[in-house]
Design a protein that fits this description.
It comes from Salegentibacter maritimus. The structure is a single chain. Helices cover about 45% and strands about 20% of the residues. It has about 140 residues and is an alpha+beta fold. A six-stranded mixed beta sheet has the order 4-3-2-1-5-6. A hairpin with a 2-residue loop joins strand 2 (about 60-70) and strand 3 (about 70-75). The longest helix has 22 residues, at about 1-25. It is globular, with a radius of gyration of 16 Å. The relative contact order is 0.17.
């Protein structure tokens, strides 16, 4: 029984570590995770698509994570890659070559797809969410 409990604690702690980098955003930021098994054309196209809309991203409290198997970075700065396999392993569970995830303010997955995501579709999805609707109403007052 002790081995089982120890194993459970170890697994729980490991999962917490995977989420550690992203948990700091909960209730503050929405996240877009661009995940690819290698730095490929879809990965670059998705990055460029979102990079064209800095005001829309900021308005919707979106933080971009670019995640490759051995490293990740946030935002659009070119030289801030961090070495880690944890985010890739945690969020590419279906083992696809390319994946885009939208994570809401509450930390829940709101979108998970393996094709390009247009900024327009992304903004429409977010703008239809109840929390975003409340933000829009608050800003109009």
């Amino acid at each position: 029984m002790r081995k089982f409990i120890s194993c459970y604690i170890l697994i729980f702690f490991s999962v917490s570590l995977h989420a550690q980098d992203l948990s700091k955003h909960q209730w503050k930021d929405r996240l877009i995770l661009i995940i690819a098994s290698k730095n490929n054309q879809k990965f670059q196209q998705q990055y460029k698509e979102l990079q064209k809309e800095p005001e829309g991203l900021k308005e919707r409290k979106l933080v971009i994570y670019q995640i490759l198997p051995e490293k990740y970075k946030t935002g659009f700065k070119e030289k801030n890659w961090k070495k880690s396999t944890e985010l890739f392993e945690a969020y590419n569970g279906k083992k696809s070559d390319f994946r885009v995830l939208l994570i809401g303010l509450d930390g829940g997955k709101k979108l998970d797809q393996t094709k390009m995501l247009s900024a327009k579709k992304l903004f429409n999805i977010i703008d239809s969410m109840p929390m975003r609707q409340a933000e829009i109403q608050k800003n109009e007052q």
